[in-house]
Write a structure and sequence with these properties.
CATH topology: Rossmann fold
Oligomer: single chain
Order of helices and strands: HEEEHEHEHEHHHEHEH
Strand order of the largest sheet: 1-2-4-3-5-6-7-8
CATH architecture: 3-Layer(aba) Sandwich
Strand content: 15-25%
Number of domains: 1
Number of helices: 9
Helix content: 25-40%
Number of strands: 8
């Protein structure tokens, strides 16, 4: 009897140890290998540091609103049409501003195409490296603390003289999309419009999906071990990533919810869940055949994102 009890204890310890290892690797991803600054796409930018609410420094690129260069030497933004007469309206109060938030394991470079396009359309744009990513130190919490940092980025952008603080929006991919919604609902980020591509509806449910579909492990006991490990390693509850509950509290924020139909983390289903919970203006764009991150390749992707933000930040 003692033998079997000991064996069971060893198995449970092994399960928990494996989950801690996987979670530690996920929360501290390796350096992002691709660097493409907005200047390569024809947009001016500044290297800046945004102070988070707890004082942590967030490395970021700031792109002031600017006019697109045309003619010889101009660089085209991948997937964008000619920007003539399609820019955001700059009023006496300033230009609309957008905080652009990358996903887990990426960095601000991953979204330089979108950042450059928006800046060349007259938006003030901030692209931060979230914690544990790019040039920002720390450890990721997969969304909850990133939401606090997204709110800090919104306040920083609102204080820029070129930006209109009454016309702020956000774009976020995956973890970044969840963080943008949580920032508006839980941390007072004054976003009027959010584009959330492949955002999860529940961090806890997404952890279970990742265990089963990415790591190919049984949800029981590995899913439960992952939740316990999250609390112990990151000092937070994964329940703080309940985006479906948060979205009910931002009826005045317009949402464009994007998801790939073939995403292993059920991005299309999450987009529909969030739309069903949101009491305000929203659009759902399900992209057939796209996996996680493959949505960016959809025809007209950048144009639709920019058009949605332009329409709702007018």
């Amino acid at each position: 009897m003692l033998f079997w009890a000991g064996l069971l204890a060893l198995l449970l310890l092994a399960v928990f140890g494996l989950e801690l290892l996987l979670l530690a690797r996920t929360a501290s991803p390796p350096p992002y290998p691709w660097r493409r600054p907005p200047s390569e796409l024809g947009a001016r930018f500044e290297e800046v540091t945004v102070p988070a609410a707890d004082g942590a420094p967030l490395a970021a690129w700031y792109l002031p609103p600017q006019a697109a260069r045309t003619g010889p030497g101009a660089t085209a933004v991948r997937g964008a049409e000619t920007p003539a007469a399609r820019g955001a309206e700059t009023t006496a109060r300033g230009a609309p501003g957008v905080v652009v938030l990358h996903g887990l394991g990426a960095a601000k470079d991953d979204l330089s195409d979108l950042g450059a396009l928006l800046a060349l359309r007259g938006f003030a744009v901030l692209l931060p490296d979230l914690r544990g990513h790019g040039s920002t130190p720390g450890r990721s919490t997969l969304g909850p603390r990133e939401a606090e940092d997204a709110a800090a980025c919104a306040r920083w952008l609102a204080a820029r003289p070129e930006a209109d603080p009454a016309r702020l929006g956000a774009f976020g991919f995956s973890m970044g999309g969840a963080a943008a919604i949580l920032a508006a609902a839980r941390h007072g980020a004054p976003f009027r419009a959010i584009v959330a591509d492949s955002a999860y509806a529940s961090l806890e449910e997404t952890m279970d999906l990742a265990v089963a579909r990415i790591y190919r492990l049984p949800r029981v006991p590995f899913g439960r071990a992952a939740r316990l490990g999250y609390r112990l390693l990151l000092g937070r509850s994964p329940g703080a990533g309940d985006v479906r509950a948060a979205v009910r509290d931002i009826p005045s924020v317009a949402l464009l919810l994007i998801g790939g139909e073939q995403d292993l983390l059920d991005a299309a289903g999450n987009a529909r869940l969030l739309a069903g919970a949101h009491p305000g203006t929203h659009e759902v764009w399900v992209i057939g055949g796209s996996r996680h991150g493959g949505t960016f390749a959809a025809p007209g992707y950048l144009e639709r994102v920019a058009g949605f933000l332009r329409a709702h930040l007018a």
